[in-house]
Design brief:
The complex is a heterodimer of chains A (222) and B (80). Chain A is of the alpha/beta class. Helices cover 25% and strands 26% of the residues of chain A. Chain A has one domain: 3-Layer(aba) Sandwich (Rossmann fold). Helix content of chain B is 35%, strand content 28%. Chain B is elongated, with a radius of gyration of 16 Å. Classes of the chains: A alpha/beta (222), B alpha+beta (80).
Chain lengths: 222, 80
């Protein structure tokens, strides 16, 4: 089982994501943004949180056009698994791999605290370790997590059961309280909350660990 | 040749920064400001000398990078 974690200048959750994957049994390759291809045999690509390229222009916009993102898009379009967390979610929407966009938080403040999430679907390799409707506690830390999708896109997400997580108490103004969405083939997940920061009892909560365990069991079967 | 790109949130997309500016203006006593939208201006220095080609090229830049057309609209001005 192998995971790749992309590292951009300004990524700051890359090592936390590596540790979370490793704890679940993955071997992890750190991949620099200037690389043009993924190492062979990668089961899942992690796009970590942080402030890639200083959030210049728009969060994730410069990173989405970096050389490695071509390889991330190719990986996803071949049916590969991708997990984008926080800035990684922003990068995935900027590449167009996931629909919608992340705007400035409605309250204009950077928010860093643990929030309650509702697992909207257990039907994905990321969420199969949870029950649909289960409530979990996961930290958020973002200034631009206010998810936007137009009505048509929102209807498509709902109809196809592609909303992975929603906020119990919407902290940032996201439409339909959306905290994370899945791709059409359910193999790409983008989410603003940080499961890798709630993957060990020492973090003060371990509700995120089930995601990495579920991914590990998915690839152990394959 | 110079080009100027105006990027704004689309009209249907709530602009919380613009709203905060509107509130601040009201606090300062500037009544009668019904709405504020905040955007950005990007200035480009181009080697291109043909205005039509410059506009086409900058439009492509907007579509690929300068604007996120999911939430933003843009307008290109070419200065002669």
């Amino acid at each position: 089982m192998r995971a790749a974690v992309i590292v951009f200048p300004g990524s700051n959750c890359d090592r936390d994501l590596k540790v979370a994957f490793e704890r679940a049994g993955f071997s992890v390759d750190m991949v620099w943004h200037k690389d043009t291809s993924m190492p062979d045999g990668i089961d899942i690509v992690g796009v970590p949180g942080g402030f890639s390229f200083g959030d210049y222009l728009r969060c994730g916009a410069i990173a989405a056009n970096s050389p490695i993102c071509r390889a991330v898009i190719d990986h996803a379009s071949r049916g590969g698994y991708v997990l984008g967390i926080c800035n990684g979610f922003q990068v995935l929407t900027e590449t167009g791999i996931l629909p919608g966009a992340l705007r400035r938080n409605a309250g204009l403040k950077y928010i860093c605290r643990t929030v309650g999430l509702k697992v909207e679907t257990a039907d994905s390799a990321f969420t199969s370790g949870y029950q649909a409707g289960q409530e979990i506690m996961i930290p958020i830390a973002h200034h631009d997590g206010n998810y936007f999708a137009d009505e048509g896109t929102l209807a498509r997400l709902r109809d196809a059961d592609r909303i992975a997580f929603s906020y119990l108490d919407n902290p940032n103004g996201s439409v339909a309280d959306i905290a994370g969405v899945l791709s059409d083939n359910r193999r790409v997940l983008g989410m603003m909350p940080h499961p890798e920061r709630a993957a060990d009892a020492g973090h003060g909560g371990s509700d995120g660990a089930a995601m990495f365990r579920a991914l590990a069991s998915q690839f152990a079967m394959a | 040749m110079k080009a100027r790109v105006y990027v704004m949130l689309k009209s249907g997309v709530l602009d919380p920064q613009g709203e905060a500016v509107r509130h601040a203006l009201a606090t300062l006593g500037f009544d009668g400001v019904e709405g504020v939208r905040q955007g950005k201006v990007i200035e480009l220095e181009l080697t291109e000398t043909d205005a039509t080609r410059a506009e086409a090229s900058v439009t492509e830049m907007c579509e690929k990078l300068l604007a996120n057309t999911v939430i933003e609209s843009y307008r290109v001005e070419i200065a002669q």
